[in-house]
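Exam revision sheet. Question 4 asks you to relate a sequence to its structure. Input first:
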Amino acid sequence: MSIWKTPVTVELLTAMSANTATSHLGIEFLEVGDDFITARVPVDERTRQPYGLLHGGVSVVLAETLVEKCLERYQLTGSVLATAKGEKLNLINFMHP
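Answer key, structure tokens:
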């Protein structure tokens, strides 16, 4: 059973993110399930720090993008746990009016 209160597809999320930080950083939506959205971000000249690693701020943009899309489609209020490769990234609190 889907948790989404409004329609959500990879194509819709991609279109909604055109000309935003999401698209400029190359964040790509991969899958929408009944209770999740997955995305990835490339590690390239747009997203690397001087040492060649993914910039920490980009990780936050990826997490915030996913949380924002979930809030939009689920009309959720409260805390959401963002994860990266199964590891806890941080607890991000969003309040949706």
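Marking note for examiners. Residues 86-97 have pLDDT under 50 and may be disordered.
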